[in-house]
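Consider the following input, taken from an annotated entry for Flagellar protein FliL (Acidocella aminolytica 101 = DSM 11237).
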Amino acid sequence: MKKIIVASVTGLVLLCGGVGGTIAYLKMSHHAGPHKPPPPKPILFAQLDNLVVSIPSDSNSDDGQAYVQFSIQFASTDAKAVASFTALQPIIKAKTINLLMTFTAKHLMDPSTHDALAKSCLAIANEVLAKSAAFSPPNPFTAAYITNIVEQD
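Applying the prediction step yields:
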């Protein structure tokens, strides 16, 4: 009698363990591994192309004028920012031209000033979107890249 009870209890434990293990295996097999993060958003670009300004060649007023052609791209992952940029491009272009006209050609052509110039242009683009389009979230453009800067006397 004692052997029958022990055998029955042992059989019941093995049966429950087998059923529980099978259920656990089936639930875990639905998950193919750790959660994969979503793919990164593509980087989109908005561009101000071929701005030409006439500025002094050097800080000496006798040196004459020079023409500077300037192009810059702005990077964003937000397609709405690029669309808003396109609509507001005349304002951004005008403010960028005003910024360029505060420099001399010698200063603009110095490579050590290009990072500060790109950051100033980035601030202009984000500021125009914030003020004119009430764009949210703020600062949709994360980087600016000077794609062309050429001086002609």
